[in-house]
Amino acid sequence: MKLASVRLIAADLRQMVTFYEMILGLEAEWLAPVFAEIVTPGATLAIGASQTVALWKEGSGEPGANRTAYLEFQVEDVDAEFARLHDEVDLVHEVKTMPWGNKTFQFRDPEGNAVSFYAPETEAAKARFAAR
User: Fold this and answer.
1) Is 87 within a domain?
2) Are 103 and 49 part of one and the same domain?
3) Is the model's pLDDT at 54 over the cut of 80?
4) pLDDT at 97 > cutoff 80
């Protein structure tokens, strides 16, 4: 089994897709007027308009309501990404190294979802990612 995608539900689909295209430097593929995907090497980020929730079950999802999931993107140079984005995003915290060895900074997307850019910093973290 593999994690294929993470899906976000957006009240303002175009704004969310534009935001993720900007931070990831990738272009979205619009598969329908209410649905777009951004394919990354690790998984696909799917973004659906709030109307798509009813395709599963009415009321089963709500834009801007998540406070438990964090989208994490591994990058080559955390400091360079921070320099590029710090004036463009709503920062949660500046660059720091976490207890498990990743150097990271965190911000929020237009719907309030937490997003982290990180890179393994300590030797143990580098070894852990090299084994994958």
Assistant:
1) yes
2) no
3) no
4) yes
Instruction: Report the C-alpha gap between 115 and 19 in whole angstroms.
Output: 12
90 with 111: CB under 8 angstroms?
Answer: no
> Are residue 77 and residue 106 in the same domain, yes or no?
yes
Q: What is the pTM of this model?
A: 0.91
DSSP class per residue in the chain: ----EEEEEESSHHHHHHHHHHHHT---EEEETTEEEEE-SS-EEEEEEGGGGGGT-TTS--TT---S-EEEEE-S-HHHHHHHHTTTSEEEEEEEE-TTSEEEEEEE-TT--EEEEEEE-SHHHHHHHHT-
Domain count, the chain: 2
* Residue 18 structural domain: 1-56
Task: Answer whether residue 118 is part of any domain.
Answer: yes
